[in-house]
Prior knowledge:
By secondary structure, chain A is an alpha+beta fold. In chain A, 16% of the residues lie in helices and 32% in strands.
Amino acid sequence: MKNLVIIWLAVSSLYCSGQTKDPSFEEVISLRSVGTPVISADGKTVAFTVRTADWDQNEFDSEIWISRGGGQAFQATQATKGSSNAPNFSPDNKWLAFLSDRGGKNQIYVMRLEGGEAFAITAEKENISDLEWHSSGKKILFTKTDSEDKKKKDEEKRYGGFATDDKEFALTHLWQVDFKPDLRNPSELPCYQSVDSLRAKSGCLNLAKPERLTEGEFTITSFKGSPDGILVAFNHQPNPLINSFIKSDISLIDINSKKVSALVVNKSADGLAAWSPDSKEVLFTSSENDTTSNFYKNSKLFAIEVNGKKVRRLGTKLDEDFGGQFSWQQDGIYFTLWNKMNRLLYKIDPKSGDHTVFLNSPEQIFSATFSKTGQFAINAKENDQLNEIYISPIVSPKLQRVTSINDQIKSWRIAKSEIISWKSKDGATIEGVLHKPDDYDPNKKYPLLVVIHGGPTGIDYPTPVPAYVYPIVQWLNKGALVLRPNYRGSAGYGEAFRSLNVENLGVGDAWDVISGVEYLDSKGLINKNRMGCMGWSQGGYISAFLTTTTDIFKGISVGAGISDWATYYVNTDIHPFTRQYLKATPWSDPEIYKKTSPISYINQAKTPTLIQHGEFDKRVPIPNAYELLQGLRDHGVESELIVYKGFGHGITKPKERLAANWHNWKWFGKYIWNEEIELPITETIDKK
Amino acid sequence: MKAIIRIALLLVFPIAVFAQNGTKPILTSDVLKLTTANQIQISNDGTKVVMVVTKKAVKKEIEYYYTRHLYMINLAGGEPIQLTFGDRNDGNPVWSPDGKRIAFTRRDGEASQIWILNLGGGEAYPLTKIKTGAAQPVWSPDGTKIMFSSSIPFHDISGTPGWKNERPGRSFNDEPNWAGMKEDEKKAVKNSPDGSLEEIKAWLAKNATEKNPRVLTRLQFQGEQDLQPEQRFSHLYVVALNGNGEATQLTSGFQSFSQASWSPDGSKIICTSEPPNVEPDANRKSSVWIMNTDGKDLKEFLAFKNYPTSSASFSPDGKSILFISRSGDNFLRGQTELGVMTSTGANPTLLTEEFDRDVSSPIWSPDGKTIYFTASADGDVPLYSIPAKGGKPTILIGNDKGVMDYDLNSDKIVYAQTEIANPWDVYQMTIKDKKTKRLTQLNDNWLKEKKVILPKEHWVTRPDGVKVQYWVMEPMNRKDGIKYPTILNIHGGPTAMWGPSGFSMWHEFQMQVGWGYGLVFCNPRGSGGYGEDFKRGNYQDWGTGPANDILAALDDAASKYSWIDTSQYFVTGGSYAGYMVAWLVSQDQRFKAANCQRGVYDLTTFMGEGNAWRLVPDYFGYPWEDGIQKLLDANSPYSFVNNIKTPLLIMHSDNDLRTGVIQSEMLYKSLKILERPVEYIRYPGEGHELSRSGNPLRMIDRLIRIIEFFERYAKHPETPPALGSSN
């Protein structure tokens, strides 16, 4: 947990004088950020998580904040260790339920909105993963993962640890628990066993006992109760293995009879989105029967009648992948979608299925939540700002900001963003964000650093503090330009653009990056002798591809990148990815694997390359890092591999993220600025 | 006079009827269920009450502990709402002036801090982050700041005190202040057991800093459970509600400041302090000090010679100040008196000089015309009011009841009350019509099936005219014509007072009658609650005088109650009463068995053994003074150990530094050598307060261990109700 946050609100006001400073890496990593909002039925309260860095515990911690009656939001939960997540209002607007691990496992906590601390209403032995208040307000629905098979534990005692690949997992199922606000904590009034009258007896005064609603050989990934409280729709798939999402379907359960019935059973992924307000229809997204291109093609939006199962498609004219938070109100279905570098709040008329843009400002709206009394709240940002939470009436929207996240960067020298576009080698139009330093001088030619996003279906958009493991703001302030291209395959530009890299991975991506560099050079902005390139995941792959296929960069950083698609294919946990993008296995078409793999061009590699990788990365396994490293070493190309101990595909802890920033700062300092930089050992900021 | 008041009250108040008319005995382990609430605070608008509810809890089946949580009562109606949760102990809640938040103390880590709970929703968060911990939060009148106190160790205070170094042959700052140094500074200090004297001193100082060994140079070196080699000083701080949590220190130096409060206009702070430049262990004086809210212009404001003065607070209109003065600066002499003066310090007047009781917990009425207070009196702890201009105190709540805590506003008093029928609940009284209403049901859930035995009150007049009040409780399910073993319970202090309004023995008494014993307890000379002369009645006479009062009460009871089996007397008591039990069995052979707890048995040894050693000079004199050693010996049970033949259970806690274990070891060892029936119990991890606030499991052990010892010698006429019972 982090202490109250009035601290930065107050501190920031000290800097109003217009003096700005280059933020430290720690300050950037420590930036607080807001999560998805939920609004109470009466529209009076909005809750959302705020994420902060806890340097003492070395973790990112989320706590729930609330805003009441449109007032400035304040921190509502104060978990001593760990986080508080999944805020959910009771239908009577009096309680906030959420999940928190305060010793042991994730449990459901409830808190009075009128004041008072939270208390647990469950004491489960397994982590609770999601919750939703039942529309009656008298119980809470939740999902939790079944406990580990006892047989497995006994087996391990005798034989030690082993596991069969893709065969061992625990399933998640749906439960419900009664909510009794005045139930006492059993530890405070124990009753005793008669043999030893001081030994507390279990079961005589207990928390309400949760009741299991679903059984069977499937795992539940999400659920939503019908507004009339009779049914629960749930998304399920055969098992929790990562590739099983393609087989996800939607079923219904009657919470009284516990009778389960299938609702949507397309061959490919079906995603539960929302209930209609009259409880008669369920909104869902689906890839229908497409199991061979659903990684990059649009999912479609449908509504299905609960009785009769009649299906109709909605929003047919929208050319983008559906996803995120949906809200079906009396007057329409609300959701957000990318539209180039903007993300808009759309509304679909449930009758006609046609869409309109409901709100297009601020530029990026990430999620929206609607009350029953005419208010909504969004998590959104303007191009030059960090995300904030806003509330507004639905009729004639007028946004009122309830957070002050941007106060954190008031005194900083931050990135200026420009959206630029250029033609790639094959004529495709590519957009990118060009960041310029605060004191940009048009008469100067600047070193250029290209930062490439992952995905490939990710997207870059204007933002004042682009970061992750790359100290972009500090590089800008050191006197560089930074280009973040939305190369082919990125989200936001429609299905055709997202498919442009199929059977053309790397090759086309490299065109897009190099053409972007050439475009900037043609405008006279950059010093071509001082250019670097970097990226994580798919961005790491493209960087690796550029290491072995061009010598225009003086230094490159490959983060969790792919160096050989065949190596990747056999080691990764998402085998269908390469089959979909390359339309082949390494055994059916070795040539396409060769054509798209950086390692195929290792003989011509010249660029000094830093490789960063998480030790236990399952998405892009670490053999990719060693393969590139050894190839570069064998060719005498300067290279270095840094392994982040214990990490998977992301550098998810503050200290190692700090280290990864320094590693990039050092690498590009050497190859772009010709500076030798050492990692400082003493702390640079006072962590309070 | 008192009787008249009682009758009047009976006419006014309907007798509250409680649920506990069951048939089951109150058992030993029921002590775990006793729930109390105190630190009551009414919000400024009078609509809400916050209080601390204390319960005992168990986790992992057998791990017992206390929880202290904030609860809120909406006075418009509804059940109390629990505001704070968790295994932490929360305390000292105070409403912000606008009633929108509560400041309280909570320890969640190294030290207790001030936390803030917003009543607009959300969990509490720590406001302060002071290394030495924060206590006693007080809101500024405008609600923007909170004043608190923190206890600062000697080594953290710069400069030198205004008294000479207690360490013979040494002076202040003549060795490195290891505890106050940073790591790199420590490395630069030369220190070694060999080498120059300076290096040797530095090395010795380093070891002393790590309390290995503890270097004792102060007089009051004994804490409650630990030695305390280092002086600490209480200082006042102010922290802004909307700031970064950094507090501003108002007072500093080698002088303690406490009990601080703001003037209603927020311009001044008054507090209690002590004479500057006097070594605190040698000091028994206190006075009222005043300063500006930034700590400037600090000065002594009200001091009386030989009257330690404290607890000052402004009247709501800011025109007057009330204070408490003690008419004497030792245990024995003097009483606490209520005083008022103007806000400029003019006309200090004592209001209660005629009122022959010790006053405590004064609170102004909102209109400033009345001051409310409590006092131990004749076995009760009534709530009184007295006109601020002077006059006679009036009892508002009394009549075998004890007001354990209270707060008030213009039209009501909210108070915690103990009585035999109901050990603890919170009530409200409307000031205008004196109507009372119970606001909580803290113990109803477990008490409703229990039978509670009420005591009967009596007085016995001693040959010297002293009247001694005592009470008798009959064994549960007593039948006529049968005689029952009877336990004489004795209180400590010696200035404590027992009565039907007492809480500390509520459960133990009910549990003992459930075990089939009759009970007699009294307030012998030397007890509090009967005026100054009575309290001084045991001066230089701890043994014979009070012992004869106690035995007279017992004999009088036996003459009144034929069910008392005079051949089956048992006796128990703790602290001074541990002493008294040993005294009785060294002088009298009537008891079948006896139990002395945490007692003192050799008063000369007591001089060195406990932090309560000042009882010896205050009541007797110093052993080296003329004739005093003889007096101490004559009053020490140990002098008569050879006469003790009664089976004796001696109890003491390992860490009890208030009375110390050596005297109980002397008593035990001597009786062993004398081959007398004796058993010695030592509780680990506990101090002097085991029976009242010790670990709940050891609390239970103590309760039933005493009974089990008595059971070896008792012959019950029938099976006691508690025997074989379980909940």
